[in-house]
Structure formats: C-alpha cells, structure tokens
Amino acid sequence: MRDPRQIAVVGVTGYSGLELARLLLRHPSLETPVFYLRDANGTACLAERFPQFRGWGEAPLRPLGVAAIRSSGAGTVFLATPHEVSAELAPQLLNAGLRVIDLSGAFRFHSAETFTSWYKLPAPHAAWLGEAAYGIPELYSKEIAAARLVANPGCYATSVILALRPLVESGWIARNTSVVCDSKSGASGAGKDPRRDLHFVELDENCKAYGLFAHRHTPEILEHTGLSESQLVFSTHLLPLARGILSTIYVTLDPPQTGPDVEALFRKFYAGRPMVRIWRAGTLPELQHVAHTNFCDIGFVLDSSGRRLVLISCLDNLGKGAAGQAVQNLNHMLGIEEQTSLQ
Amino acid sequence: MRDPRQIAVVGVTGYSGLELARLLLRHPSLETPVFYLRDANGTACLAERFPQFRGWGEAPLRPLGVAAIRSSGAGTVFLATPHEVSAELAPQLLNAGLRVIDLSGAFRFHSAETFTSWYKLPAPHAAWLGEAAYGIPELYSKEIAAARLVANPGCYATSVILALRPLVESGWIARNTSVVCDSKSGASGAGKDPRRDLHFVELDENCKAYGLFAHRHTPEILEHTGLSESQLVFSTHLLPLARGILSTIYVTLDPPQTGPDVEALFRKFYAGRPMVRIWRAGTLPELQHVAHTNFCDIGFVLDSSGRRLVLISCLDNLGKGAAGQAVQNLNHMLGIEEQTSLQ
Amino acid sequence: MRDPRQIAVVGVTGYSGLELARLLLRHPSLETPVFYLRDANGTACLAERFPQFRGWGEAPLRPLGVAAIRSSGAGTVFLATPHEVSAELAPQLLNAGLRVIDLSGAFRFHSAETFTSWYKLPAPHAAWLGEAAYGIPELYSKEIAAARLVANPGCYATSVILALRPLVESGWIARNTSVVCDSKSGASGAGKDPRRDLHFVELDENCKAYGLFAHRHTPEILEHTGLSESQLVFSTHLLPLARGILSTIYVTLDPPQTGPDVEALFRKFYAGRPMVRIWRAGTLPELQHVAHTNFCDIGFVLDSSGRRLVLISCLDNLGKGAAGQAVQNLNHMLGIEEQTSLQ
Amino acid sequence: MRDPRQIAVVGVTGYSGLELARLLLRHPSLETPVFYLRDANGTACLAERFPQFRGWGEAPLRPLGVAAIRSSGAGTVFLATPHEVSAELAPQLLNAGLRVIDLSGAFRFHSAETFTSWYKLPAPHAAWLGEAAYGIPELYSKEIAAARLVANPGCYATSVILALRPLVESGWIARNTSVVCDSKSGASGAGKDPRRDLHFVELDENCKAYGLFAHRHTPEILEHTGLSESQLVFSTHLLPLARGILSTIYVTLDPPQTGPDVEALFRKFYAGRPMVRIWRAGTLPELQHVAHTNFCDIGFVLDSSGRRLVLISCLDNLGKGAAGQAVQNLNHMLGIEEQTSLQ
C-alpha cells in the first residue's frame, strides 16, 4: 500500500517546479519529497544543484526513471513537465498505483478532439482523460479528493474561470453579448527556456499582446464557464514583471444589478473558500496583493446603469496559477486543511 | 506683428514639459524658445535648473508672468500646465495676439457642460471653447493650421480615437454592440508629483486598473469617435514602466470582413500620414516599437468568422500622446513638414 | 510578570513594519500580536486597514498609547518607528518592564556623541545606550538573549559587518590599505514616504549613488568591524528594484591567502549559524538568491596573487536587513530556534 | 577614389547595430547607408526586417559579402560584428581601400599577446594592430582623424578611462594604492543572444557581479590609464535595466586636494569636448541623465581630508559606449562637427 504523503516530483527546473519545491519542502504533513530530473548530473541533493535552496532543508535529487519512482514507495507524484512528457509518464505511474497531479495541459480536457485541435498532437492517453479531475478546488473539491489523476489548470484559465463562474451560474450574463477577457501576465508564465522575446531587454519597458484567438487556455475557459466560442474573446499580454496575472473581464448583465447584489453573489459562491478573496464593490485588487501567495483576488466596478460590469481577477501565476494550486489539490487529496503550507 | 516661430513655453517641470523642451531645442525652424516657470528661482537658463539639458543648447528660463510673455515678442505659446492654470492663462495670451497650444484638458470640449461634468469645475473660458481645434492632425489638420487655440488631446484618447475612427467612418461596427477599450499606460502619464501609489515600490512588479467609468479622457473619445456612452467601455491600467500606452480594443463587425479589407481601410484612411503606422493584418505592434517616438502604431487580428476584431494601438504617452503631438500641431500651424524635429 | 510571547508592534505602516507583521502573524510560538498605530482611524483589525493581510489571520489594530501597551499584558514590543519616535517611546516601555526590539537607529551606538554627530539630534536616552545589545545574533547572541533592549542594525551595516568581521578577527587585512564597500540597494530601503526621487519614473531604468561619506550606517560599520574612519570607504547606491542589498567589498590581504583558506575562515566563523550562507570560493551569490528570505549570502573571488579579495554580501533589506533579523533577535530572547518563522 | 560619406554597415541585428542604424539614418552629412547581413533573407530593405524603422527613411539591406561591399562604392564601413568576424573582415576591407570603424574587441590592443591572452584566440591581424587608432576622440582625435582603422572601445572601458585619465596625467593618484572601479551595467551590454541568465525573470529584481579579475575590458583600461595590473581592481555588475553604465571609482590622492581643484582639473582637461560633461564638485550624475545620449557624465565627492575621492562616471552603453562613439569617430574621420547626429 503506497503512502500518499510520500511525494515524488518530476521536473523541478522550471519556474513552476522550483516554486513547487519551495512549497513542498516547508509542508508540515509530508515526508521529505524526492526530486527526479532527466539530467540529474550525479548531484545527490537539491541544494547542490539549486543553491538558493541551501538552508531550506535537504531533499534527494535522483535521475528520472519510472521504475525508480515506482520502487521508491512514493504514493503521490507531481509532474512539472511539458505536456508531451506528462502524457507519456502519467499513465505508467497511474498504472503502478500512484496518484498523479499533472501541471501540464495534457489531461485538462475530457475530449481527445479538443486536445488534438489545440495542441496539434495525438491524445494517446484517451483512456485517462475521462478520469482526470480538473484541479480548481473551489469548483471541484469532491472530484479532486477522490481522483487518481488531477489536471492542474492553466494560470490564465484559473483567473478567468474563478471570476466568471458565479456569474454564469447566476444566469445574469446577457445573451448574445461578448464576454471580453483581457489578461495580462508576468514573464515567468512563459517558461524558463531562453527565448529572444523573453530576453530582459526585449521585455523591459515593453508590453505586448500575443496568441489572439489562438491561446491554449481558451478551451479550458470554454469548458468550465460554459460560454460558447463565439461569445468569448480572450486575449493575453506580456508585462515587464516576473510574477502575476491580472485579468480584466467585461460582462454585460441582463437584468441590471446593483453593486451589493454582485458582491453578495460572489461572497455566497466562495463562502468557506479562503483562497478566493472577494473585494468590496467598487474596490479593485492589484497584482502586488497576490504576488507570492496562493490567493485569487476578485473585485469589480459596475456602471451606473447596472448593466456593464468590469471584473478584475488577480493571482500569482506560479502560486494559485500553478504550484500553489497543485499543493492545494494535494491537500484535498490528503484530506487536510486546504491552506496547509500556502500561507 | 508677432513671429509664430518665436516660442514661449510655460511649465517645463512635468514629464510632458521636459519632453517638449527636448523637442523644441532641436527643432531646426524655430528661434531659441524661452521657458517660463512660476518658480524660476533666479536661475537664468534651463540647463542650470535641469542639468540633463547641458550640452543641448542654451535657453532662457524666466519667472512666469503674462506681461513678460506678451512683451517678449513670442508668437506661439505652449502651456504644459494643469488645466486650472491653462484655463486662466490661455485667454489672456490669446487676447494679446499669441497662438496657444494647450497640453491640458481645459479646452478639449466644445461644450462647457461636458467640461464641468467631468472636471467638476466651472468652465470660465466658454467663449474660447468653440474656437479651439482638437489637436489630432491626422483628423483635423485644416482646423489646426488655421487655429489660434489648439487643445492637445489626452494620451489615452489619442490612442483610442486613431484606432477607432476609420472603423466608425466605414460603418462596419455592429450596432448595439459594446466597444471595449482596455488601455494600459506607463507611469509618466500619471504626472510627476510624488504620490504614494506612484512610489517605485508600489508600482514595481505591479499592475492595476483605475478610473473605471470615470476617466476624464472618456468624453474626448465619445466626441471624436461618435460612439454613444452606453456603447463604449473604457478602462485604464498602470504598468511598471515609464513611457507608453498600449490600448487593446475589441470591436464586433457587421457585416463580417476579411483581414486584407480591414488593413486596406486603415491604409487608405491614413495614406500620407506618416506618424500613424499601420501593421500588416495579423501582426501586432509592441510598446517598444513606439517608445521615444511620435508614432502611433496600429495592428489587428481578426477571428476566423470575420466578426470579432481586436486592435492594438500603441504610442508614447509623452510623444504622440503629449509633447510630440504638440510639436506636430505647431508644425501644421507654421505650415512646415509635420515630422520636423519628430524623428 | 509579563509574558514575552505576548507581542506589541508599534508602527506597521512602513515597509519594514508590514514585513514584520507578516512574519509575526505566521510565527508558531507567539500569541496573536497586537498592532498600534498613531493613526488607527477607528479600524479594529489589521486586514481592514491593509487588505493584503486578509486571509493571513486576524490581529487587532489599536490607537498608539504607552498606557494601552503597558496595560495590554504584552511582554515584548517591536518599534518599527522613526528614530525620534523610538527614542521617546523605548524608555517608557522599558521602565514599564517590557523588552524592546527597536528597528530604528536610536539605540545603535554606545556613545551619545556618535549618535549626535551623525543624526544631528541630542541623545536623550543616554542612560539606555550602554545597555542596548546590537542585534546581529551571529555576533552577539548571548548579549541579545539577555537584553532588555535590542537595537536592530541598519540594513547596509548588516551586509557589510557580516562580510568583514571574520577577516578583521583573522588579522588578514593589510595595514594602511583602504577597505572599499560599494553597496547597492533596492528602493524599499529608502522608506515609504512619497518623495520625488522615489517616484517610479525617477528610479525606473536609473541607478545613482547617494550619501557618500555621509551615510548614517557608517558609524555602525566602524564600531562593529573595528576599522578606522580613514580606512573605510562606504558608498550607497539606489537600484531599480524593490528589495535587496548587494555589497561589493574590496579588501587587500597581507599575507596573501588561497581561496580555500578564505572559504575555511568564513565557514568556521559561521559554523552553526544557518542564516549566513557561505558560497564556495569563486562562486557569487545574487540578489534573487536572498529576496524574501532571512539569509545573508557571502561569496568571494580572490585574484591570482592571493592579495586582492572581492567579497559579495547579499541580503533582503526587509528580511535580514530589518524585520527578519528583528524576529531572529526575538527568537534568541525567547530561547527558541533562531530560524522560527523565518523560512 | 572612394567617398567616405558612402557608408556600409555590417551586422545590424545586435543592440549596438540597431542603435548605429538609427544614428546613421538621421545623419545629415551622409549618403543613405547600406546594411549587410549574413542572413539577409531576401528582404530588400531595413524596415521590412526591422519594423521599428518604418518611417525613419528607407535603406537597402543586402547579403553580406566582401566583394559586394567593395564594389558598392562605399568608402567607410562599420563592423558591428563579433570579434572573430571583425578580425576576418577588416583586413580584406582595408586592403580594398575602405576605412573601417570596428565596434568589436579585435583591434583594441597594440600587442597581439594582450589580445591572445584575454580573448584566448590567435591574433591573425597583427599587421593591422599597430595601425589601429583607439577610438576615444577626447583622447586621440588626431590619430582617429587620420586613421584607416579605428577600434571603437569597450563600453565599460570608456566610462573608466574618461574618469581616470585626467587624474593619471595630473600625477595626483597616490603611489601603491589600489584604484577600485565598481562598474554597473544594464543588460543590453551583454548582447542580444538568448541566454538563461539574461531571461527577463532571471535579471528582473536582481543584481549580480560577474567577470571578476577576468573581464576583457581590463587590458584596455590598463593600456589607456597606465595603471599597473596590481593597482587596478575592476568589477562588473548586471543591473535590471536596459541601457547604461555607471562606474563608481575609488581613488586615493597624494597630496590631498580640494573639491574645486579636482573640478578645475577635469574642466580643463575636457575643455572644448562637449560630449564629456563635468558635474560641479559634490554633485553626482545618474544613469537617467545619459540614457539615449552620447554624453559621458563625470561627477565626484571628495572626503574632508582631501585624500579619498569617489568618482561617478555614467554613459549609455549603446551611445557613448558603442554606436554613438562610433559615429563620433566617423565625424572626426570626415572632418565635421563631432556632435553631428548625436543630439
């Protein structure tokens, strides 16, 4: 019988992986996690490879291999790997009886067609797609607690879905009107590989839009808000900062509402969900309020007609947008307080 | 008879004023401009007060006084002053026979009610409101060339109006659909006065929305695009950078169009207007492309249905958004090449 | 008998105060701290005033008053106040039997003359100067554990003293040679008051030196390294970032040493001191390695002659340079693990 | 007979190359420059490849080839290429009768041994080393005006040499004391190639030292200041900004001097040299004062003993540190005003 508190982590080199390591090393309910890297380079411990971890507690670093993970006794594995790698590793680890939390996009869709159409790749893991829980605990905590496989959501998608879901369920969004989501992200969301457009000089003092009508987080948003493809307009921008996503979301309401009504809707929807913080009507969160946290902060302004609503949804793309939410999912799988290690 | 090439500048201490000084000092068709400051402090020349101008050519700095400007022989005066100050100074200088280019919001509306309703101040200068030309030369070059008073537009307004005007005139914007303008600006647009929220630490690694449904550039956009107040949603955000505005603008088209059609519309509209650069369909400008220039760059992406159009409009808020456009207006008033000193 | 685990905090509005609040709220060995503000504005809890604390646990916010603190039962008080305020409050609180950790410069010198000469103020608290422990626990842990009053050191001073102290004690620094300390700091070290030179636009893309031969941390460095005033050259620079100090320190060695010798000296000196991390000879720490931590990282490069040594000493000015070190001092005063709440 | 005003530019893709293109396109005394790229990709003009140049005037872009440059009629060629490429191209172009301004390190040393020892490469161009003028016009204007080959200096070296040269020539630097040069640079100085350590996230909110006792600009500084290798300590740091170098330089004076004496020394030394701006004794330049200019600004503070001098020397590493100085050298070679196109 595998112990779910024995943790394996695959792929610690990226920004999400490093943040995950930080959160797991200080998590009070876990055994020391073991890290696996394709390129472990003979170094035996995490801090030798990543000197910023010295003094945080030691953890073993081992060459990646499914057999090694299987025989290690680990009960839960985090995959902080590209989707191609996750697609290959996850089924093997699941078949060996481990529970898997995958931070990539490989298992985020119930439909293989959706995956293939947006990722331009076959979806070989179709057998597992139906079983994966979509890892936003504020929406799917029961499924996550019971799941063998959790697909940790996209960072943009988390910020947009958490802001829209209460409105969608309320039926207040006017039919046949566009919902515009203008999302802005720091550079750590774009990954760690050196790229010309992520060179410091290219992004410093710059701001640019990218991926219009083509961003891979689009189908996640459609699936978990229920908006139609023709209703949603989703855009993404790069900002000259390291961490954080701020989504400005434009919705038309019908019938018109008051500020207190909208606030009450959100407060009720997220009651008992401490990681989503609702701001008072007319006040707005900023990126700095959520940087280095696992919070998603949501605020809004309603115009005087009560019809035009602008929402601001903020989170840290490495926190609630990736590693933090992954640990929150783990906490649900272990049946412990969801904030554990996240404050 | 006053010489319009003799220039007075009031209010050089702000960011727009300093940029204006830079552009005027290197302008090849002007006499040396004279700078006026309420707090001239007995310093006799610009570089003594602002050491960054040493080596750029000398220019006198004098205590502010309408009489002094009148008797100096200047024919054209730039007001880089707050709107209360401009409202007071401009009529006196106009009555003395000078031409005025005002960078504040004091004379941007034909209607005194509009001014009062957005600026919460009486509009004592009502006699002059009707005569002021709105200083976007790509739209109003004839009026500007002939004007005694030019109201230099708001920085956000310039970026939005230049992007929307061709679409409005084409009649392609679907009726009863919202036009969403999500604008993002660097910190120099917020002025130079020390403010808690503009402290380096407060804005660094931050992004925040502000002024929703309340920004003073809204009525300029309404007046010069012809959109109705219920159709326009205009939001503004602060970015952690010094210079530049990027507006992401969401429009629904009816009937649907193709990318080449939209590109052709813009190219035709701005033919012979070198300071507006149109990007090829599907390619998008970035802030860095326009920083430290007088260009407004416009690009767009159209979705596959041809109905949903996302425009990106970029400019430097101190260039085309303020001082650069002011000099471009001066060039039209002098009847010389509009790019003079702006490359 | 007062309980030292009952904590009062005066002055939470500055950057050090907010960081201190964060560290104390999550500290596992303390009662809920009570916060005192001159301008408490009738708000009853911390998160109401500072919304970024919502979800971190509640804490009372009360109007500042010595009587209120005295009668609250608190045993230890942190003063995150300007030195004039600390100078006034500390003696009253000490006389009431509280232990005091003061983050200002008011009690950092044994000599009243030194204080007066650098701070241009009388030193009315002379009676307490001799009793104050200088709060670098790696050097003075015994004094701190027993102290009623701890003077938390300056941020620059901490980075320089920790790097120089082992060399001074070894006797390796060549006589009559200068020791140059070129320190670079992020903007949060300059405080939170809006100032023209701390406006985002003024510091963005900028770097500047300030306070040459006049910085108030100089006498702390002289006193705790034993260098003479003519030997030390200490300069400070502002960097366009929020948190962190990096000091580059230039020392001439006599007799010449090898890299392993220097590394061994530092490792031995800081053995059992986990918050100072020594880097391997020839490798250098960076600001990012210590941001948001309580570590001071020290690395060095020695030239081929073994005579010219360049040390790099990094810390977070709000962590080990202020609030973190204050909590580390508290831990010593309470007799608990010094890293508690600091990882 | 070749016309020196007909310009060829090799290697426009790097940051120095792009800045050079900007300066040459607006230069009033030149024919339209022709740009050569190894990878010209069939595009025929500069703005097609680099859209930020649209509206700046057109210029041809051609595939790189020595024969093509030779037959183009160009009289002067700029090499904005890596030193290996410059080492190969320059002799061929010189032999064809062109004058060459090389921005790389290939021809900066009179001694082939120095080049080989620091660049770890053979110096095949030894025949040309003796003939190259070192391109700091404030020191070597006569040599530059007459030269067939100008070696444009390193950016760090320019900032340090300009600050130290007057002191060296005055004989005021105390014998046997170290001269410490602590230089800080923005990221554009490190080149445009994507590198892990230049990723936005790695440099944002970071500062780090690099290249201690190993930086390739060291031998330039030694040769043009006359300091001995044991006297100079030169360190380099990366800052989170795009453009600019600030060098803090620590000198011991013997005999002691006064502030006015030091200021007078510098003013006399740089009299008639408008691109070096001397600050009043006790005032210091900042990076923002020189960004996007060709100025080198020098200020200093002297301690009360008159013995310890701290100099601040600032320039834009792409301006006076590279492309701007290259154009300044061209102006001397053409016998025209040295500031032409540089204001």
From TrEMBL, chains A, B, C, D:
The active site is at C155. One of its GO terms (molecular function) is N-acetyl-gamma-glutamyl-phosphate reductase activity. CDD domains: AGPR_1_C, AGPR_1_N. Transmembrane segments: none annotated. It catalyses: N-acetyl-L-glutamate 5-semialdehyde + phosphate + NADP(+) = N-acetyl-L-glutamyl 5-phosphate + NADPH + H(+). GO terms for cellular component: cytoplasm. Belongs to the NAGSA dehydrogenase family. Type 1 subfamily. Catalyzes the NADPH-dependent reduction of N-acetyl-5-glutamyl phosphate to yield N-acetyl-L-glutamate 5-semialdehyde. This is N-acetyl-gamma-glutamyl-phosphate reductase. The gene is argC.
